[in-house]
Amino acid sequence: xxxxxDIFLRAHTVKxxxxxxxxxxxxxxxxxDKWPEWVLMFDTExxxxxxxxxxxxxxxxxxxxxxxxxxxxxxxxxxxxxxxxELNTIGTFMKGALPGVExxxxxxxxxxxxxxxxSAFMGKVFWPALRKGYLxxxxxxxxxxxxxxxxxxxxxKRGFSLIMANRFWRQYGCTVPDPYRPEIRIEAKDARTAFxxxxxxxxxxxxxxxxxxxxxxxxxxxxxxKHLSLNxxxxxxxxxxxxxxxxxxxxxxxxxxxxxQDVKATQSLLNMAKREFDLHPLPHLLPDKSYSPASIAKAxxxxxxxxxxxxxxxxxxDVLGIAMQSFSAGRAECHIRRTKVSVMRLDFxxxxxxVNTLLGNWHVLTAESVTFxxxxxxxxxxxxxxxxxxxxxxxxxxxxxxxxxxxxxxDIFPVRAAYDLQQPDKLNIGVNFLTSAxxxxxxxxxxxxxxxxSGGKVPHIERAIRIRAHGKQKGMQPVxxxxxxxxxxxxxxxxxxxxxxxxxxxxDKVLKHALKIxxxxxxxxxxxxxxxxxxxxxxxxEVFSGEHSHVQSARDIEVPGAWYFPPLASLxxxxxxxxxxxxxxxxTKAGGTYLMADxxxxxxxxxxxxxxxxxxxxxxxxSEMGTDAREFAKIPALSHRQVKQISKRFExxxxxxxxxxxxxxxxxxxxxxxxxxxxRTIYGFAISAKRYSLFRYARGALVIEDAKGHGLGYLMPxxxxxxEDDDWIKEAWGYVLQLAGIKSCGAPPxxxxxxxxxxxxxxxxxxxxxxxxFVKPFxxxxxxxxxxxxxxxxxxxxxxxxxxxxxxxxxxxxxxxxFNVRSGEKCRITLGDSQRADVVPVRSYGQILAQYLNNxxxxxxxxxxxxxxxxxxxxxxxxxxxxxxxxxxxxxxxxKLEQGPIDHEVDYRCKMxxxxxxxxxxxxxxxxTGFSEREIARGTGLHRKVIRTIRHGGYVRRASLQSVxxxxxxxxxxVAVQPL
Length: 980
Fold this sequence. Notes:
Helix content: 25-40%
Largest sheet: 10 strands, mixed
CATH topology of the domain at 38-136 and 189-196 and 208-293: Nucleotidyltransferase, domain 5
């Protein structure tokens, strides 16, 4: 079945007046001390109301002695609007509390310092520390800074500018933000990480030192590539953590002791993080500038004196536009839907570092210069002789570093499109058949993939260019990773060296894990880093994508990171897809199939001896399967021996000195997950891309071994986690499998009838604007999924209507007091129907999971060749996409409000470039004659004047014409769009 779709192609953009400046701009090294002598850390306790007003603050001033920070002063600050009894409680605590001073002084400090107000604390402690360049430290620091602020403004970069002090201005007769005190600017990088900096004042001479702010949560994430709570980090390092106390929102002796212990734990955690950070010999990377594992990887590249590509190579913008048009992210798909099959999961060893090594990308990164030369004839000749066997020759892989202008004609390529016509603003990438009258640029490994997957069909190449590296950059120097692993950029392939040393140091778990983080973070993402920035006023933007270019006005632009270089990024992800394509081709050639693909892994349908496995037979109501249901449920399976042979075949592509295959049979496939024991039977069940689970049976009971919670990560855990590894997603999947008719002996989770709740961090002014006056910057609130029958999950997560105070105790959610952010009124929630305005029906976790099972894999077709629906089961087919208009887009973005362990979204929205008006073609206009204006208006919600314009061939907004296309599509009519 062929489907007409607009296809979306990535674009490279440049500010017109700064195109040259962006190329030559050098990064400035911060000359601040890596670890300053003094540190101020603090923690706040708040009311348990929605606005989380501060009730007290505990602070410590610490000095660097040797290699750790020791406490010199400690104090307590009274919040504002405290009751008399609460003030008395603080006084009682002061009588029996000795300061946690660790450096002796004379006279000795025998009491905690006390400040009666935040203003006193700011004047005595905070402002002097900031003026002298102390490091301001906290765990989740933006929240605590917001608690002590007096107000906020929207910053230029879509962040917050916190007003830390007010002053009565006699000239105006009112209180205004104090111009003599700097504001603190916080721009959220994502829901968990923020850039914190000090603002300016009208007396800059008094504020010579740069303000430095360190969020310990961010630093630890950059070191270990995971997010944990303060208490779990303390458990990780085996140090004293938080007290066993639930915050009450009132000043009590337990509350003060709880807050004080949090600050003490923060100090201990700072010393542990310092010890880990100092293992990296990176003198120019400051701890407060280490935002992610990529920060550390980039710092190592700088220590080698490798000049970033965009500074070193003079690559024309049109070439960068070619590379960006060919860029797509990793491949993720469901191939067998809603059918239980026995599987073996295999994954590629360090996929992106391996691809870099096979392609020889280190030579590009360290080259003195690069050129992009016409290689059309050479590439055509290469592609005519490429076979599946040739792809296992590592000497041939460097020849895949090219970009080809292809005119697709039923060729298999990654296609970015809005596959679900009901949601035209949500895009997806599917590896599908593509036909396009207009040629597109494709990365070399993707062209080879198309040949491999089609069994030898060579796409039509109109033009091809090859990237060539010339010479070696001068001035590079060796570096020692973690002070132990030497990398010489002249003699070593950095990507290869790290993986080899990771294997050689398997007994050292700390070193092995650190090398894994550096390898993965430095192997791909930094080459396609783009940061959003808002311009006032709008600027002229030059847009390049393949053969297309135009100039437009834009307010929101994408600023490339320091190591931005699209040719490498495009080749790396395409190389990863090529590895999966080779594995898929091997499986298909052996007569088998697979359950799903997920970036670097493939689940192959297997049984001990091979043959045919029978999946779950669909019910009579599943029209997708029709009368041939039993035939569709018969799925070919490879034997364990055949899968081992496929795995072994990838030994020839191993570029490392330790040998072995790069397509590993994962430990989960073995008894007790021990590769030294026999293989066991593992079953898989997939719903759509990144929504799958792997499980087994033990004494008749179903045991979830692995579960991917894509599409559930924005929800709060419905129960308190018992351990760090405790995951409610596995319990959720157990229930989903029961709903799918798969036998399970376990009882349904007891939390199914609790209201489904989202945790919303107020990390941007846009979010704060939606939540009105109920919250402050960087608050955390809870929002239930309103059951209004109109909005789907994604729409609800974008537009919450109810909020309540944040609490992890799900048993309190049902009885909590909620606020309607649109009306400002208080209300309650119910899981049933309600006729009362102050009682709002919401969805439960059980309802969410029932809906979760029906998420279609819309980018593929069902077994019968019809579009995949919620009820489709069995082996899916690739769709045939006929390209309509070529549209140009920026980076994939997520605008959700939630904070949670969101894993690699596959549906996303893009920034669009050059969105002009469109008109319907003659066929579309002819089809519209079969409906009255009233019918079309009811079906689309459009004004009759707009409908009349479309019917007469006039130009309208793209969204308006898309509504008409959906209207016609719902009535099984195929239409086309003619661009302006």
